[in-house]
Amino acid sequence: MSLSGILGNALSGLQASQAGLRASSNNVANVNTAGYARTIASFEARNVGGVAMGVQVNGIVRVVDRHLQLTSLRSISEAGMTEARAGALDRLQSQFGNLDDSGSIFARLNSAFNGLSQASVDPTLSVARLSAAADLDSFFTEAQRLSGEIRAQRQETDAKINATLQRSNEILREIYELNSNVQSVSAGGGDSSGAENRISELLDEMSGYMDIRADFQGDGRVVLRTTDGVLLLDNYPATLTYKVAGTGSYGVEYGKIFANSPNGANPQELDSHIASGELRALIDLRDKTLPDVAEELAEMASGAADALNAAHNDAASYPAPQSLTGRNTGLTAADAHNFTGATTLAVADNSGVLVRRIDVDFDAGTYSVDGGAAVGFAGTVGDLATALNTALAGVGSASFTDGTLSVSASAANNGVAFLQDETTPSDRGGRGLSHFFGLNDLVRSDSPGFFETGLSGTDVHQFATGTALNFRMDTIDGKTASTYSIPMVTGETVDDIVTALNDTTTGMGRYVTFSLDGNGKLSYTANAGYEGYELSLTGDDTSRGSTGVPFSKLFGVGLEAKAARAESFSVDTAIRADSARLALGKLDMDAATVVGDFVLAAGDNRGGSGLQAALSTSRSFNAAGSLAASTASLGDYTARIAGTIGSRAARAESEAASAATLQATAAQKRADVEGVSLDEELAAMTLYQQSYNAAARMLQAAKEMTDTLMRIV
């Protein structure tokens, strides 16, 4: 070997050793840096014309295992999704509390019924009546608060989705810029490990937001897609867009997330392509979990209100109130009354003496006054109101205006009360006359609390031409399958609307089937093959006659109509102002009772017993959220709601713990390859130092040989 060859070998050895020392020292300096992958110097033997010419440094290489990295990214996405879900549900569960928490809605319901029990012991005690009414109002106030909390969480979730997408856009832009840096540095043979480490750190962060697939290119760039292939970053980054609703209202239609390509191609809907990560959890919370809880809460509150009102409308206070004004039923005077069975309306003075009795037999279509001859009346709601008004002539009056029935006594010392027939009680949509119209409701609401309308398919629907219902059908993965507009046509029947809804071309009949049951309740079931599809009401500008009640609220169509009920209930203000209006007694009447008999007594607690029984009496509950339709007592249904909310939170916490363990395991396996070991780096530095010394010794030997040769010459 020539002297020049020896010098070349020695110098290349010095350079290689220095590169190795720099790589090792850099590793040691970044031992605690998040996202840092250790680097090594890449060497190869240099050979020129078959002659060894030392060692060549090819560059600094990051030590990574792409398979482990992608596995880690998937585990980060799963952990991000489960953690976000668990945090939200834990917060929600803490708001509801447990069955044994004194301030929980469940404990408040039990306290309210305990209060009714105490008031029934001695109905003459005003303090007990006031306390019972206050406890009841506390329960419904808590239902309002919880519903407001759910709406607030939906609004926060909506804002978080937007903030997460803004950060995702920043990450995509930064990776795009780093890609360019890596590409240019790598092409020049430079060290691009710093930029690659930053890209790795950003990929980890992005995976926490959504599941991504990273494809590493030969030129050093990374191409990003969702796991099912939607392109997020290649030569240019996509821009993720989302329009914030700015409200948690149950009736709001939330927008979709879109990935906008820089080349002007049509935006790609992204919601259905996000399978995990924080965004998936937030979307599911906003669109499914929180609405489910809201529906369940509303069904519980509605069931409590309806059970109490059923008992209160068949009871009477002492003395009976001078007037009773019902709720806005959404009915018009032209509607068929559709009642069956029988009921009695009584006018009594303030000492409980019967002044007039009116017996209404809907099956026969007649009424009688004070046991007199039967008088026929026609079959509409207006006819019913007219008949009651005629029967009350001289002692009272009845009227029906804008969906609301009112009955009153003329004299200030007289009052009115209703009593259901024991054998064949009056019935429309599963409720008696006074109950259906809400004449003596204990719990009031400014919108329908139940959706058994009592309407039949042949009834004219009473919605004006020019108004419409708008729907959107979403597939199981969240994509919009189609949108629909169902117009109202004046003069058509309820059956005509059902037919329009079920039309397979202009309606939703391809996916679902609507039906009207015997109680006038509208519902739909998914057709075979479309069980996972979701139907949403997106608009309703209808109004029934002069009542102002829209189709959706009358029939309970859409989330707003069902979930918002929890915020509308409260104890009747007249009862809160005068606890004597709390109906703890009951009319004491039979076929032989005549004017002048005592029909109300101060100490009667039969009405109070009926109110207490509302907690344990079985009743029907509609499907709500994750709960199927069922028959249960109010107490059992309340316990079921508590268990459902608690199990959701517990399950989410368990899933989050499992995902965190998997993430930690994947991160550790990845760190075993990418992480810096001080022992290994010390050994490498020792090796490079020895290599450097050897190269230096070779250079010294060459110098000495040169000096010797020069002296010989």
3D architecture notes:
With 713 residues, the protein is an alpha+beta fold. The protein contains 15 helices and 25 strands. Strand 18 and strand 19 form a beta hairpin. Helix 2 packs antiparallel against helix 14 and helix 4 packs antiparallel against helix 5.
Task: Detail the topology: elements first, then pairings.
Layout: H1 3-29, E1 39-48, E2 51-62, H2 66-96, H3 105-121, H4 126-187, H5 193-209, E3 212-216, E4 222-226, E5 231-233, E6 239-241, E7 258-260, E8 268-269, H6 278-313, E9 323-325, E10 342-349, E11 354-361, E12 366-369, E13 375-376, H7 381-391, E14 396-401, E15 404-409, E16 414-420, H8 433-437, E17 443-444, E18 468-474, E19 480-487, H9 494-501, E20 512-516, E21 522-526, E22 534-540, H10 551-555, H11 559-563, E23 570-571, H12 573-577, H13 606-613, E24 618-621, E25 630-633, H14 634-674, H15 678-712
Antiparallel strand pairs: 1-2, 3-4, 4-5, 6-7, 7-8, 9-15, 10-11, 10-16, 11-12, 12-13, 14-15, 17-23, 18-19, 18-22, 20-21, 24-25
